[in-house]
Amino acid sequence: MAFIRLKFKDFFFQFKHLITLYLVWVFICLILLNSIGNVEFSVLINQYHHTYFDLFFKYITHFGDGIIAFAVILLLFFFRLDYGLISLVGFSISATTTQICKRFVFEDVQRPFVIFKEQVDLGQWHLVDGVEIHQLFSFPSGHTTSIFSICILLSLILNHKKYHYLLFVLAFLVGFSRIYLSQHFLIDVFVGSLIGSVVTLFSYLLLIDRLESLKKYSLLNN
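Given the sequence above, the corresponding structure tokens read:
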């Protein structure tokens, strides 16, 4: 136990900027959920739309696609075998957890399009042209799980304050895009971010030392 506590203490000091950023994110999400409300937050965001925002969030949301995550995993395998394995484990577990929650545990949770269907039918709800709107399997957000998993891992690998901030902003924008595009509620995004972040952090912590002997290998030199 003492060794584990020491490892987590060392980890915290080594990545204090990264951990602080994500703790602030958790705190803000909890404040918003408590002060505004989950459904009410979507109503608020939907009132503030613009053509440029529509275009921006329509495309940046794709950074949370599974294909992007697998591309990052493949690149890491080419760079360093240990990083590739850690990314594969972290993403696989976080994605599987999210999909089980979405499709089996919370399969009846509806997406914003269904909840606000009356407003949509009356033309009182803004939808972005060209975005396929989903109706089922809302909780938690798979795109948010994916992007937070990717950004956490890359932050751990790069371990520089500027990359911590840049990758956090990317993760935040992709998560926010799911709300802006009426694909998810705040609680879906929040829990998706927790799954992606926590699973990836623990995967890194548990495997980085165990796979140290593989760091000199990659798909390029095997």
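The two ends are 37 Å apart (CA to CA). Try to locate this feature in the token string yourself.
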